Structure formats: structure tokens, C-alpha cells
């Protein structure tokens, strides 16, 4: 199962909107097939492993990170194919909460006399597919926030300059985080201040990560730019020159809400419900992105937008890259969330992992749910 989970991690870069799934087939103590799901519309992990084993799998045990599908979508149901190939046993890490599956895959296998074992390394598999799981269950994307800050929790000098607080190793890790995201959300203020591209620079990824990626299926995330009052001139900024960009404005007009219109080949526009403070309502935005089957979003912006997501209780995890620099009391703070009047009311994240990148440190926090 550990091998299957490792294989599944390769699909994190390309399987959107499907989950990243890995599969290993064993017979007589020997691995005879391996596979993972590369991209929606292509064979699922079980079929890739069956192909690797030349479909000679009678009596074998199949280790798979997610319950085999039971419905006809872009591909036929994997559960029925496993029955057809006469495997003896299926060991699964976790069930699929998708209403189209949700136990039906296991039922098909058991009805055919195939032994099914569940919950093997379930925690690890659920973590790998945490974005897919939340999206399927709640109908809104999983939200990650990335910030690069100084030791005194500042993200820019008092004059707004921020290039570069963190080092090149940290920035390479950011490329990996972007590559595993379905869309990147930023603000018009960030666009006007930094003129970023916010694309994935695959060449900056570590060699071991590049080896995981099926570059025939690689993509650039959708870039979502929040421009509440519609003041951004899209002809002036390079972010709108390549890839797919969604410009999001705020509106009180019910007739124009959630209707996406095309501006040009790179840019479309949508109006989202206006919040009480006059900006795009964060939760309404996430609901709209959920209708587009966006599973995971990465928020890369200044403290104002990041804090808006935190204040909306919409953040599932935080990547905080901390550089050993002090920018001073007049520098711009990383977070400006609402004041808390009692320590018992603080929103609390769990430290999942720390990792050193040169002299920088990544603090990776998760919201336990």
C-alpha cells in the first residue's frame, strides 16, 4: 500500500478534477503490476496496473488507494473490470465519498466473491486526497494559503518592496505547490504592485519531483484575480497574456451573478456576490469555483486578501515560508485578521511539518477537521 500511495502522489500534478490514485497488484509475493491515474479521461489507476500486468492477474491481490469506481464516466467502472479479471482480493486504503461510488465499488467486488479489505493506511491516503475529499463532500474547494515572511512576520518593506524576502530554494518549493493546485487566487492589488505571472515554472522543480510528472498531461493552474470594483486594466499586466485567467468582480445585481463571460482567449469575467465590506464575498467565490470542479486553490496575495480568507474561516492549510530577516516595525504585516478578545476563541492550526530550505524554514499548518 505504501508503494500505491507513492504512485498516487505522481497524479497530484495532473489528475484534476479526478483524485490522485495509485495501484499495485501482487501475486505469490511478487509485484506484477503498477499504475496510477494520470489525467481525467485516461485509464484509472487499476486499469493502468492491469495493463502493466498484461491483464494476467487471476488470483492476485490488488492494493489501491481509493475504492474502485462503480459507474460509467469517461471510462468504464474499475470494479467490474477487476471482477472480469478474476482477482482474488482487493485491499483499499479508503472509500470514495463520491455519491456515484460511495460503497458501490466494494459491493460489486464482494458480490462477485472477491475478498475486500478496507482502511489500510487510510490516514495517509486521505491526506493525499484531502482536496478531492473536501470538494466532493462539501462542494467547495480545499484552500491553501502561501505566504513568504520575515522573522518578524512581515511580507514587504514599508515602501511595498518584497523581492526577495525568501530564497531561491523556497521559491522552487512554491512552484511545486502551484503545480499541485487547480487554481491560484490573487488580488488586483498584487497584480498592480508586482505584475506577476503566477504560472508554474516546471524547470525550477527539483529533479525528483519532475520525474513524477507526466508532462504530456501537465497543465497551468487557472489564475483567479479578485478585482471587486472592476478597475483593473487587463491590457497593462503580463498575467493576462498567457494561460487561463478569471477576473472576478463584486456585484449586488442578482441577474448578473455567477455568469461567466469571455473577454478574450486568455481572460473571462464573472460577477460574484458583494460582501458587507464591499469586496467579493469569499464563500460565494468558493461556491462558484466548486461548480467548476476546482478541487484545490492556492491563495497567493498580500495580507489583506489572505486575512479575508482567514476571517471567512475558509482556509484549510497554510504554507508559511520564514526567512531569517528583520524588516522592521513599519514593514507590512503578513496577517491582519480580526481582533480576538479571548484566547479561547483563537482559530488554531496544527503544525503538520517543518522543513528547512537553505536558511529559510517552511512551517506547514493544517486545520484539523
Automatic annotation (TrEMBL):
SUPFAM superfamilies from the UniProt entry: Cytidine deaminase-like, Dihydrofolate reductase-like
PROSITE patterns given in the database record: CYT_DCMP_DEAMINASES_1, CYT_DCMP_DEAMINASES_2
Pathway: Cofactor biosynthesis; riboflavin biosynthesis; 5-amino-6-(D-ribitylamino)uracil from GTP: step 3/4; Cofactor biosynthesis; riboflavin biosynthesis; 5-amino-6-(D-ribitylamino)uracil from GTP: step 2/4
Catalysed reactions, semicolon-separated: 5-amino-6-(5-phospho-D-ribitylamino)uracil + NADP(+) = 5-amino-6-(5-phospho-D-ribosylamino)uracil + NADPH + H(+); 2,5-diamino-6-hydroxy-4-(5-phosphoribosylamino)-pyrimidine + H2O + H(+) = 5-amino-6-(5-phospho-D-ribosylamino)uracil + NH4(+)
Gene: ribD
Source organism per UniProt: Succinivibrio faecicola
Keyword entries, A-Z: Hydrolase, Metal-binding, Multifunctional enzyme, NADP, Oxidoreductase, Riboflavin biosynthesis, Zinc
Cofactors that this protein relies on: Zn(2+)
Pfam families with a match to the protein in the record: dCMP_cyt_deam_1, RibD_C
Function, in words: Converts 2,5-diamino-6-(ribosylamino)-4(3h)-pyrimidinone 5'-phosphate into 5-amino-6-(ribosylamino)-2,4(1h,3h)-pyrimidinedione 5'-phosphate.
Record's protein name: Riboflavin biosynthesis protein RibD
InterPro entries referenced in this protein's UniProt entry, alphabetically: APOBEC/CMP_deaminase_Zn-bd, CMP_dCMP_dom, Cytidine_deaminase-like, DHFR-like_dom_sf, Eubact_RibD, RibD_C, RibDG_C, Riboflavin_Biosynth_HTPR
The record's free-text note on cofactor binding: Binds 1 zinc ion.
EC assignment: 3.5.4.26, 1.1.1.193
Lineage: Bacteria, Pseudomonadati, Pseudomonadota, Gammaproteobacteria, Aeromonadales
One MF annotation (Gene Ontology) recorded for this entry: 5-amino-6-(5-phosphoribosylamino)uracil reductase activity
NCBIfam families cross-referenced by the UniProt entry: eubact_ribD, ribD_Cterm
UniProt KW NADP keyword: yes
Assigned protein family: In the N-terminal section; belongs to the cytidine and deoxycytidylate deaminase family.
Record has Zinc as a keyword: yes
Domain CMP/dCMP-type deaminase: 1-109
Amino acid at each position: 500500500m505504501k508503494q500505491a500511495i507513492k504512485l498516487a502522489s505522481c497524479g497530484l500534478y495532473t489528475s484534476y478534477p479526478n483524485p490522485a490514485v495509485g495501484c499495485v497488484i501482487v501475486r505469490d509475493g511478487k509485484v506484477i503490476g503498477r499504475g496510477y491515474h494520470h489525467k481525467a479521461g485516461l485509464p484509472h489507476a487499476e486499469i493502468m496496473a492491469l495493463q502493466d500486468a498484461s491483464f494476467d492477474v487471476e488470483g492476485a491481490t490488488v492494493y489501491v488507494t481509493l475504492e474502485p469506481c462503480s459507474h460509467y464516466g469517461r471510462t468504464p467502472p474499475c470494479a467490474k473490470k477487476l471482477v472480469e479479471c478474476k482477482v482474488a482480493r482487493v485491499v483499499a486504503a479508503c472509500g470514495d465519498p463520491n455519491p456515484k461510488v460511495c460503497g458501490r465499488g466494494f459491493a460489486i467486488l464482494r458480490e462477485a466473491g472477491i475478498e475486500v479489505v478496507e482502511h489500510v493506511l487510510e490516514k495517509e491516503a486521505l491526506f493525499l486526497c484531502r482536496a478531492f475529499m473536501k470538494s466532493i463532500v462539501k462542494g467547495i474547494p480545499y484552500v491553501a494559503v502561501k505566504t513568504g515572511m520575515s522573522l518578524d512576520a512581515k511580507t514587504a518593506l514599508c515602501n511595498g518592496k518584497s523581492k526577495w524576502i525568501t530564497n531561491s530554494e523556497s521559491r522552487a518549493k512554491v512552484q511545486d505547490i502551484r503545480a499541485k493546485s487547480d487554481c491560484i487566487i490573487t488580488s488586483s492589488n498584487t497584480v498592480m504592485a508586482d505584475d506577476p505571472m503566477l504560472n508554474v515554472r516546471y524547470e525550477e522543480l527539483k529533479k525528483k519531483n519532475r520525474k513524477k510528472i507526466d508532462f504530456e498531461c501537465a497543465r497551468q493552474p487557472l489564475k483567479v484575480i479578485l478585482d471587486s470594483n472592476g478597475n483593473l486594466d487587463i491590457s497593462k499586466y503580463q498575467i493576462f497574456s498567457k494561460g487561463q485567467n478569471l477576473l472576478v468582480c463584486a456585484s449586488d445585481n442578482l441577474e448578473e451573478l455567477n455568469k461567466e463571460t469571455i473577454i478574450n482567449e486568455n481572460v473571462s469575467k464573472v460577477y460574484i456576490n458583494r460582501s458587507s465590506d464591499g469586496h467579493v464575498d469569499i464563500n460565494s467565490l468558493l461556491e462558484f469555483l466548486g461548480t467548476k470542479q476546482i478541487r484545490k486553490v492556492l491563495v497567493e496575495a498580500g495580507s489583506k486578501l489572505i486575512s479575508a480568507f482567514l476571517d471567512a474561516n475558509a482556509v484549510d492549510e497554510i504554507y508559511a515560508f520564514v526567512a531569517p530577516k528583520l524588516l522592521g516595525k513599519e514593514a507590512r504585516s503578513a496577517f491582519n485578521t480580526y481582533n480576538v478578545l479571548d484566547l479561547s476563541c483563537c482559530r488554531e492550526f496544527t503544525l503538520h511539518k517543518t522543513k528547512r530550505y537553505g536558511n529559510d524554514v517552511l512551517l506547514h499548518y493544517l486545520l484539523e477537521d
